[in-house]
Design a protein that fits this description.
- The protein is built from 30 helices and 34 strands.
- The chain is globular.
- Helix 8 runs parallel beside helix 14.
- The strands form eight sheets. It has a seven-stranded mixed sheet, sandwiched between helices. It has a six-stranded mixed beta barrel with strand order 21-25-22-24-23-26.
- Helix content is 31%, strand content 19%.
- The mean pLDDT is 92.
- The two termini are 46 Å apart.
- The protein is an alpha/beta fold and 893 residues long.
- The structure holds iron/sulfur cluster.
- Iron/sulfur cluster binds next to helix 1 and helix 7.
Length: 893
């Protein structure tokens, strides 16, 4: 059989793992980690490993549509150009905006930015990366004079101490977590400290977990700065020669964090714990502090990050291997977007829009007479302007703001009344594209061609192994062709991603100031062959001299500021914008789960990934659960100051701090009735970066007792009618629905047949105890199981795992049929339980069995027995937890 192999990169998180895709003649797609890619050396997490399952055409947007009608590209372009031009003519260029995405490739970003800032003449282009890492950008710029992340993944292997602040790396950047785990296993002296209000899967491997009060990170790191100074840890030579502002930073730090007892009190941890951490940091030379959204998604995110950087500047632990403040980006190309000016307040190639000289350089290079002269609207302000009708036309590319933006209901309402909305996306029906006047089909992973930059500034190729389906085009192509229709042909002549990359690389070199680090001059003038075969490379890539691959960034002690000194920033910690009250007694935190990505438009299509977290949930501490009568497995209604409310399943867990709730960010209206947690988040932003405070809303929660609960597993999508709550997930050849409601049909027996499209004469088995509200039924088609429905007045329904396994069978045995409506497997068949290992489909009960019956007391021995955890390793923290649990339980349940 013919198999073609393509080296490309994973499209999910900012780790930017290299993958090798094998395309079989029969269309089967296999994905493996690329052993040569320096981001992952062959490793992949569960999401990367399941990429082959997400290459599908169902649910794709394949043709341009205007007002829901399929049209040609020419007609779509003519319509968009006419609408945009008319609005610009009447109201000026600031009446239009682009809202783009960290999913775009660098080449897409570059041309979108060039069109808006260079030729439409407005800087109203911002990216959803604003929501996840713009505070890191602002903090690096304040400290170093440029958005330069100074570390490499290799530093994580060299570090003796890794501090993870607001970063659940085990789930959000799993391959880096694997690197850290390996480093710790191979060197027992390596220490890991996690700083996180929640006890996450990442904190399970840490030596110390500081469960600080939400939002108090800057007090903690100001305290560290004071401690380091008192301990005589100042690198006098470095501070004197390479920095400025130390005295002011120390003075501010002393005000908030004069001594450890003050810090411990504010942070809600004990003094001993705090001193242990401070001592460890002090005596360890090679320390990397990793941070991500847990720090940046606060209204004082920039300050929090600068409070960390200050500690590195004081001790001179920058520009050397194995140390530094390391921001992990959430999206695969958030960094690439930053490079080419995807943020409304930047120009391409790390030049500044408020710097006249930089504007002149970019205008000259682009030969633009209409370059935007001021910063544009940041994401939140952009949607405010749409709401106020100051922005009358918006083009949303590769993102789903109706789910992902804070106060998402307001964003939805704003788009509903916007004069002209264009959405380009690969998926047909997103919550956002439903509101669009024009939908444009874009290519997606597997079809796209271009580059991405990962968290360690490494540029990698994303290569196509599939042709574009239907009439889908690459984003750069769509933007280029529209620009041509709008009359900008000369500036948009591109015929390939390679041409765009070359222009971008040349811009980084054009009249480059000596102090700017971003330099791709060594990648200019590549032939198409060279571009196609480009190996992963970290910037800077100067035409002459060393690249950062051999020398750490800032190793000469000279930074990107005008006087080449790094800046300490005086930090006065600020509390989050919302405080708990009688009406809203909980702090609401949002984040990711292990196997889903963003708004699930891709991962929601993978049965393997969907098996891990099948519905939206809220985590609540056991004491709070008791106090508020919240029962594990039942439903809760959560509301916030925005006036919105969501319905989610309750998970009672001591991982959560008392007084805090955690709800994942992924569920949209396609996968759940009402669980868009972003609708509960106020549009409070960091005043410098504009990044919203996703990690700290205040909320109330109450049990939402339904009159009935149930589930449906069906090869068809059912016609839900009475379900106040529903959540669906995709299985292999079926859909699974968890449902609940207040109202119910007169007769479940009659209603279930309508719901599941049962035709007269079809094989149908059912059990109905009307008085007690138990109803169970199964439909068979040609001997195999087609659908089942279980309804009960109680939430205590049978486990779904064995029932799901029946959907993989061609026929159902007599004993299985007999057991089916009881929901329990026959005595001779083992139920695997909830899926833990997504790679090999290994369930919780199988793992517990290996532990209790076969004496597997390590992840390795569990793996030897049942394969769990031996592939991507994403489930290793959960296996560790199960091993511990089985040591005290008998796990028979
Ligand atoms: Fe993809 Fe996982 Fe690697 Fe992130 S860690 S890039 S999701 S394989």
């Amino acid at each position: 059989m013919n198999i073609s192999r393509t080296k490309t990169t994973c499209p999910y998180c900012g780790v930017g793992c290299g993958v090798i895709v094998s395309m079989h003649e029969n269309g089967r797609v296999e994905v493996q980690g690329d052993p040569d890619h320096p981001a992952n050396y062959g490793r992949l997490c569960s999401k990367g490993s399941a990429l082959g399952e997400t290459v599908y055409l169902a649910e794709r947007l394949l043709y341009p549509e205007v007002e829901g009608e399929q049209v040609s590209w020419e007609r779509a372009y003519a319509h968009i150009a006419a609408e945009f031009s008319a609005i610009i003519k009447k109201h000026g260029p600031d009446a239009v905006a682009f809202y783009v995405s960290g999913q775009l490739l660098t080449e897409d970003y570059y041309v979108a930015n060039k069109l808006m800032k260079g030729f439409i003449g407005s800087a109203n282009i911002d990216t959803n990366s604003r929501l996840c890492m713009s505070s890191a950008v602002a903090a690096y710029k304040r400290a170093f004079g440029e958005d330069v992340m100074p570390c490499n993944y290799d530093d994580l292997k060299r570090a003796q101490l890794i501090v993870l602040a607001g970063s659940n790396t085990a789930w959000c950047h799993p391959v880096l977590y694997q690197h850290m785990l390996q480093s710790k296993e191979s060197n027992p002296d390596v220490r890991i400290v996690t700083i996180d209000p929640r006890r996450t899967q990442t904190s399970d491997i840490s030596d110390y977990h500081l469960s600080i009060r939400p939002g108090t990170d800057a007090v903690l790191f100001n305290g560290l700065l004071v401690w380091l100074e008192a301990a005589g840890e100042i690198d006098v030579h470095f501070v004197e020669n390479s920095t400025q502002g130390m005295a002011q930073a120390l003075a501010s730090a002393r005000l908030s964090s004069a001594d450890v007892s003050m810090v411990a009190d504010v942070c809600g941890i004990n003094v001993d714990q705090l001193e242990q951490f401070y001592r460890l940091f002090t005596r360890t030379e090679r320390v990397v502090t990793v941070f991500s959204q847990g720090l940046s998604q606060y209204s004082s995110g920039v300050d929090k990050i600068n409070s960390i950087i200050n500690c590195y500047l004081l001790t001179g632990r920058i520009g050397r291997k194995g140390m530094g403040p390391f921001s992990l980006t959430g999206q695969p190309n958030a960094m690439g977007g930053r490079e080419v000016g995807g943020l409304a307040n930047q120009l391409a190639a790390h030049m500044e829009i408020d710097n006249a000289q930089h504007r002149e350089i970019v205008a000259q290079f682009w030969q633009s007479k209409t370059l935007a002269s001021k910063a544009g609207l940041k994401a939140i302000n952009c949607f405010d302007a749409i709401e106020n009708r100051d922005v009358k036309a918006v083009w949303i590319m590769a993102t789903n703001p109706v789910v992902s933006m804070p106060d998402a209901d307001r964003v939805k309402a704003a788009l509903e009344k916007c004069e002209f909305v264009v959405v380009s996306d690969c998926v047909a029906n997103t919550d956002t594209s439903r509101l669009a006047h024009v939908c444009l089909p874009a290519t997606t992973w597997g079809e796209r061609d271009g580059t991405v930059t990962n968290s360690e500034r490494r540029i990698s190729r994303q290569r196509p192994f599939l042709s574009a389906p239907g009439l889908a085009k690459h984003d750069w192509q769509i933007i280029t062709e529209l620009a041509q229709v709008m009359g900008f042909e000369a500036a948009f002549p591109y015929r390939s991603a390679a041409e765009i990359f070359d222009e971008y690389a040349r811009l980084t070199a054009y009249k480059k100031a000596e102090n700017r680090q971003l330099d791709l001059s060594g990648l200019c003038d590549m032939s198409l062959h060279e571009y196609n075969n480009l190996l992963p490379v970290q910037w800077p890539v100067p035409a002459h001299g060393n690249s950062s691959a051999s020398l750490p960034m800032f190793s000469d002690g000279r930074f990107s500021t005008d006087n080449r000194r790094a800046c300490f920033i005086a930090i006065t910690p600020r509390a989050p914008a919302s405080a708990v009250s009688e009406s809203y007694p909980f702090v609401l935190n949002t984040g990711r789960v292990r196997d889903h990505w963003h708004t699930m438009t891709r991962t929601g299509m993978s049965p393997r990934l969907s098996a891990h977290s099948i519905e939206p949930f809220v985590e609540v501490h056991p004491d709070d659960a008791k106090k508020f009568s919240l029962i594990d497995g039942k439903l809760a209604q959560i509301s916030s100051e925005t006036g919105a409310e969501i319905f989610v399943r309750i998970r009672v867990t001591s991982r959560q701090q008392q007084g805090s709730l955690f709800v994942p960010m992924h569920w949209n209206l396609q996968f759940s009735s009402q669980a868009r947690v972003s609708s509960l988040i106020r549009t409070v932003v960091d005043p410098i970066s504009g990044q919203p405070e996703f990690k700290h809303a205040v909320a109330s929660i109450k049990s939402c007792d339904a009159n009935w609960y149930g589930f449906i597993i069906s090869r068809q999508k059912p016609e839900l009618k009475y379900s106040r709550y529903w959540a669906r997930s995709r299985g292999k050849g079926f859909w699974r629905y968890e449902i609940a409601g207040q109202q119910q049909p007169e007769d479940w027996a009659a209603h279930a047949k309508t719901l599941l499209h049962v035709e007269p004469g079809e094989e149908w088995a059912e059990f109905y105890d009307k008085a007690d509200g138990h109803y169970r039924a199964a439909r068979f088609v040609a001997g195999h199981l087609d659908s089942i429905i279980f309804i009960d007045s109680s939430v205590l329904l049978p486990p779904r795992d064995w029932l799901i396994s029946l959907f993989q069978k061609d026929s159902i045995s007599a004993s299985e049929r007999l057991s089916l409506l009881q929901g329990l497997p026959p005595a001779d068949i083992e139920d695997a339980g909830k899926i833990i290992c997504a790679c090999f489909n290994v369930g919780e009960k199988t793992i517990c069995h290996a532990v209790t019956e076969q004496a597997a007391h390590s992840v390795e021995s569990v793996g030897e027995i049942c394969q769990a955890g031996i592939n991507c390793g994403s489930c290793r923290p959960e296996i560790v937890e199960l091993i511990k649990r089985c040591a005290v339980d008998d796990c028979s349940g």
